Amino acid sequence: MRNGIYKTLLISIFFLAFISCSNDDDSNHKQSLNGNYNGTFTVEYLNGDTFSNSVTVRFSEGNNYQSSGNKDYFPAGGSGTYKKSNSTIEFFDINFWTTNFDWHLILGGEYEYSIKGNELILSKSKSDFGIYKYELTKGK
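The structure corresponding to this sequence follows.
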């Protein structure tokens, strides 16, 4: 009988410890992105070339997004819907694009993300191209 009480107590302690742990990834996943974000887009190509420009990304109801683009395609822009998980956001761009630039410059596909306060960092690494990064701050 004593073993049964200890076993129940031990299981209860593990259960309470498990449900009381806080995971930042889970809180990121639950945090709404809705709003306007301003910041910088940077791409670092494998050959050492780096390009950077200002960018605005707007997230709205229904998991919609819209990203500003530049004439030099750094970044190209993009708009559509997105799906957020614990550590990634997948962007589903709905636009038609010409073939005269690096399509990874479009805000589309899967990005790793982190949120700290009003700061949102989106990044993806394409092993055969380079690193694409959005460093954004949410507007008030």
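The chain has one domain: 26-138.
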